[in-house]
From TrEMBL:
InterPro entries: Nudix_hydrolase, NUDIX_hydrolase-like_dom_sf, NUDIX_hydrolase_CS, NUDIX_hydrolase_dom. The keyword Hydrolase applies. Residues 2-135 form the Nudix hydrolase domain. This is NUDIX hydrolase. It comes from Planococcus chinensis. GO terms for molecular function: hydrolase activity.
Length: 138
């Protein structure tokens, strides 16, 4: 199986009662996820999270610590995906869909409903994060 690293960005509004979600076109039905996607070759997790959030939502984000790490095996794709979910904050841009062939909509969703799609458990963006550290080569 091929390992695939995937990043997501948890973006909540100021009152934390809404979470930014994207509705992706699927092979069958459409489905909601946090903004995110696969890490490209030569890209750090943080760089990928910032890029993916911009590509999928039109928003510029700053990235904080990691909320969760999870994984899933996709037998049909022969992938072992490892998901890194970062806490993020909107710092600019405006909502737009850059890839309408992939993204059906971008929506601020009620946080309780978004919980069904984020796989963060009870933590749901409010819990402690672990630091993200990029070790520079010496």
């Amino acid at each position: 199986m091929e390992r695939v690293d995937v990043v997501y960005v948890y973006l909540a509004n100021k009152t934390e009662d809404q979470v930014l979600m994207v509705k992706n076109f699927g092979a069958g039905d459409s489905y909601y996820t946090l903004p995110g996607g696969a890490v490209e070759k030569g890209e750090t997790l943080k760089e990928a999270a910032i890029r993916e959030a911009k590509e999928e939502t039109g928003l510029d984000v700053s990235i904080g610590g990691i909320l969760s790490v999870s994984e899933k095996f996709f037998e049909d794709r022969n992938h072992h995906a490892v998901f890194f979910t970062f806490i993020g904050e909107v710092v600019g841009g405006h909502l737009e869909i850059a890839f309408p062939e992939e993204i059906e909509e971008v929506v601020w969703m009620d946080a309780a409903k978004a919980k069904e799609y984020t796989f963060l458990g009870e933590q749901q963006g409010k819990g402690p994060t672990i630091p993200y550290v990029l070790h520079k080569q010496i």
